[in-house]
Amino acid sequence: MLSSIRKLSSALTRLFHLGLLCASIFCCIFVCAVVSAAATDPAVPPSSEMPWWVWPLVLFVVTFFLGIVAVLGGVGGGVLYVPIVGGFLPFHLDFVRGAGLLVALAGALAAGPGLLRKGMADLRLALPVALIASTSAIAGALVGLALPTNVVQIALGISILGIVAIMMMAKKSEFPEVKDADALSTALRIHGVYHEVSTGHTVNWKVHRTPQGLVLFVLIGIMAGMFGLGAGWANVPVLNLLMGAPLKVSVSTSKFLLSITDASAAWIYINGGAVLPLMVVPSIVGIMLGSMVGVRILARTKPASIRLIVIGLLLFAGSRALLKGLGIWN
Amino acid sequence: MELKPSATIQRKPPATEEQLRYARLLRLLMRIGLIMLIVTYAIYMSGILTPRIPVQELSRYWSLPVHEYLSATGLKPGWSWVQFIGTGDYINFSGVVFLAAATIWCYAAIFPMFLRKKDYIYAAIAALEILVLVAAASGILQTGGH
Questions:
Q1: Which one, of A16, A68, A67, A22, lies nearest residue A298 by Cα?
Q2: Mean pLDDT of all residues in chain A?
Q3: Which of A240, B33, B83, B136 has fewest C-beta within 10 Å?
């Protein structure tokens, strides 16, 4: 009897979480669509008919659901925030990118201390990479703010579609085999000991192909600064697949890296005037609360199906950015 | 004597001294910054301090490119916002800037540790990173707008 009640309770909880997830995705798309229609309908002058307080509220709701979906899909909030908020809400892409960087920065600052303390993010691996990526991010932010909006929209659309391709094709390696560390990583003493609590394995890790990795971080930094996307989607494959760091070390170090890369680019947007406080705070709080709810749902959902939904969302938002930039879908 | 299964063995985390100092300082700064962000936003939304740009008018500007927004509102890029820190909207920048500067303080905290350990390569990397972040924060790097 007791076990039947437990089973029923567990099934109901699963059903509730599944319902919450579906509602999240539905609300996210619905709110974006309604708001986008209201903002672009010629019968309703953009933003003037709706009371001002609706917009921070809409941002909070959208980012809350984005926070849930981002955690479940295993992506950072920034990569969803910029194309979706930029594509469907009435804010100019300059302000969306500024807010996107601050959203990604706040998430990384919140996660960084725990990851460093547990030894999952590695400071010796992060510091040289961060120097390259943050310098490039400044260049990317300067170029991004100087380019015409439609050019940035087109490049953003192409980049988002590229990210979708990477997400679909890139494999992951829990413990990549690194036979010999390269000369640069040896000189920098980039190596460590990683203990996997769930399996009890202790792995001595080292990295290779460091110069090639650093060259790729120049590109990653430029894209992070130019589009305000955060860069976890690119950091992890380079650290894990190219340089050979264990997957969890790569994911954690990537998250910590964002706190440095995005900080440098965020300064360019702050000093350039592209930060609207009205947008920033509801976005940061919304995505943080959404992420907390997402973590609770994570244990009870199937990651593969969620990943497909995130890929679908990014495909839609990336196509929207591309078509908006080309003047086909305004 | 009963041996614990390896999965439950608690080991000392492989975090270095610098890593732990960085983590402790970052956690403190992040908490202060987040509180500042929420408190200043509450001041903004409640109207306790009059904003420089009334919130009702803001929707006229937020769909403009940033250089048009700046010229329409008479604002200047860089640190000029500091003179308006007593207004409802610009007080929010204190929290934003505090969070953006957190990384600089963390690097400044670990730099002497690398020097003490004679780890000159990492001391140089930390010093360079501080220079990069300070250059970005200074406002000397700006675009001409589009």
A1: A68
A2: 84
A3: B83
pLDDT value at position B137?
Answer: 96
A20-31: average pLDDT = 48
**B41/A274 CB distance under 8 A:** no
* Helical (H) or strand (E) element with A226: helix A210-227
Domain, as residue range, for B27: 17-138
Q: In terms of Cα–Cα distance, which of B10, B94, B89 is closest to B56?
A: B89
Is residue B10, in this structure, part of any structural domain at all? no
**Which residue reads 């769909």 in tokens?**
B63
Q: Which of A189, A195, A226, A270 to mutate to test the interface with B (most CBs of B within 10 A)?
A: A270
Split into its structural domains, chain B has a count of 1
Q: How buried is B39 (Cβ within 10 angstroms: 0-12 exposed, 13-18 middle, 19+ buried)?
A: middle
Q: Which of B14, B63, B99 comes nearest A47 by C-beta?
A: B63
Single out the residue of A225, A224, A244 nearest to residue A234, CA to CA: A224
Among A3-12, A20-29, A40-49, A283-292, which range has the highest average pLDDT? A283-292
Q: Which of B3, B11, B30, B70 to mutate to test the interface with A (most CBs of A within 10 A)?
A: B30
Question: Taking 60 as the threshold, does the pLDDT of residue A24 lie above it?
Answer: no
Distance CA B92, CA B39 (A): 9
Q: Output the six-digit token pair for A128.
A: 């040289």
**Is B2 within the bounds of a domain?**
no
Residue B33 counted as domain residue: yes
CB pairs under 8 A between A and B: 209
Calculate how close chain B gets to A221, using CA atoms only, in Å: 13
User: Chain A: residue nearest B24 by CA?
Assistant: A113
Determine, for residues A270 and B100 on separate chains, whether the beta-carbon distance falls below 8 Å: yes
ipTM for the assembly: 0.90
Interface test with B, best of A138, A271, A280 (most B CBs within 10 A): A271
Taking the CA of residue A3 and the nearest CA in chain B, the distance in Å comes to 28
Chain B's closest residue to A288, CA to CA, is B34
- Higher-pLDDT residue of B114 and A196 is B114
Q: What is the largest CA-CA distance in chain A?
A: 68
Please list, in sequence order, all residues whose beta carbon lies within 8 angstroms of the beta carbon of residue A96, skipping any fewer than 6 positions away. Answer: A81, A82, A85, A86, A89, A228, A279
Per-residue pLDDT of A226-235, as tens digits, reads 998 878 888 9
Closest CA of chain B from A47, distance in Å = 6
- Residues of chain B scoring pLDDT < 50: 1-11
Contact A160, A317 (CB under 8 A): yes
> How many angstroms separate the CA of residue B74 from the nearest CA in chain A?
11
Q: Report pTM.
A: 0.85
